[in-house]
Amino acid sequence: MYLGIDFGTSGARAIAINSDKWIEAMASVNFAESSPDWAIIWQTTLFDLIGRIPEVVRRQIQSIAINGTSSTVLLCDQQGHSLTQPILYSDARGASVMAQVRAIAPPHHTVISATSSLAKLLWLTTIQPSATIPHPSPFFLHQADWLSFLLHGQLGISDYHNALKLGYDIGELCYPDWLANLSIPFTLPTVVAPGTPIALIQPEIAAQFDIPLSCVVCAGTTDSIAAFLASGVQATGEAVTSLGSTLVLKLLSETRVDDARYGIYSHRLGDRWLVGGASNTGGAVLRQFFSDAELQSLSEQIPNHESLLDYYPLLQPGERFPVNDPSLQPRLTPRPANPVEFLHGMLESIARIEARGYQLLQELGTSSLTRVYTAGGGAKNAAWMKIRSRHHLPVPVVASTQIEAAYGTALLALEGSQVSIDK
To answer: Would the N or C end of the chain have less CB density within 10 A of its end CB?
Structure first.
């Protein structure tokens, strides 16, 4: 069995697959809101989630991989204890150090964003004067890095999907000189390929959950790439739109495109590139106004014609893609009295943002778009799928083979299990 764990914005999911890639078990846990400490919430959720996998499956787990939200970061000491509150993926406090980011990074680089890992790293240096930093220096880690550490015990290891927005060079597979020579009071993680076997599971964790001592914990990935892996996409020009709390686009391209002006960046996937971006619009905005039951019932009443309401649905000011503007204001007026019309306008507007994103990718030189797969909760909304097909996307729009990012991460664990490590 191979276990994939997905840490999203509202909770975590786990899927165990067998060697034939069939799902053998699933579990999910919503984040508790009783603690203000995200690190405690994540740790509690991780172990709660593993415990919900049936024992008969846990006893057969050969490898585990974890994905996390991109650019969610934290500092921890040499024992792995968090030293600061984690900074979440959409947190734009890095806007205050953007002049420093631009002075360090090459023009139009992926890290030139208020929400990038590098911007958060530099912001942390402004609140952690060198004189107050413990020795040896703390580790700067991503969410998936730290959660994986809790299982394998090897601190300071990341993957090049998570490390992209820190500034790691995914072309040369190293930290660039402008980052490696940066004077900072923190230790950057060692970076390996996603799916790389890191170490055996810690014996006490194995004993607690009846997992074999031979189980390998592999390097993880980001939630959006995990959703892409789950989709089953193979052909150049195919893309995955993941509509969860946010809207994420990934297009498989022969050509790499990076342009921070629009929040566009490329992840490495073998000898090809996943080009795309992440918008702050998405399901989190919808849930601000509608319950899940209301989303389902109202969506069924949406008419077949295009809504003329022109919104830019955001929870708070700030957008990453296809407009990279930390001060962009939400636009959710005028609001009609009829909730069906309001939801129709929001879904239509999210679809327009998606279409503009794909149009922009191709304008900047990616492979031509041929098909769009849909992952995340949006794949379950038939009205949104129809709106996109009818008005906005000029290619077939279909549901992904699997819509759960945890499935894609399980595939990564399966891949990693086939590589031997020094035990």
So the answer is: C
Render pLDDT for 263-279 as a digit per residue (tens, 0 to 9): 998 999 989 999 999 89
Contact 65, 416 (CB under 8 A): yes
Two structure tokens written together for 298? 């109202």
- Residue range 187-204, pLDDT digits in tens: 999 999 999 999 999 999
In the block, residue with structure tokens 């905005």:
285
Nearest to 122 by CA among 59, 179, 50, 207: 179
Largest Cα separation within the chain, whole Å, is 64
The pLDDT of residue 379: 82
- Phi, psi values for residue 243, rounded to 5°: -110, 95
Q: Which of 256, 260, 259 is nearest to 275 (CA)?
A: 256
Q: Report cis status (omega within 30 of 0) of the bond before 86.
A: no
For 207-251, the DSSP string reads HHHT--TTPEEE--EEHHHHHHHHHT--STTEEEEEESSSEEEEE
Torsion on CA atoms 92, 98, 100, 106, rounded to nearest 10: 110
- Please tell me the pTM assigned to this model: 0.84
Which of 265, 53, 268, 241 lies closest to 170, judged by CA? 268
List phi, psi (to 5°) of 131.
Answer: -65, -20
Cα–Cα distance between 320 and 239 in angstroms, integer?
19
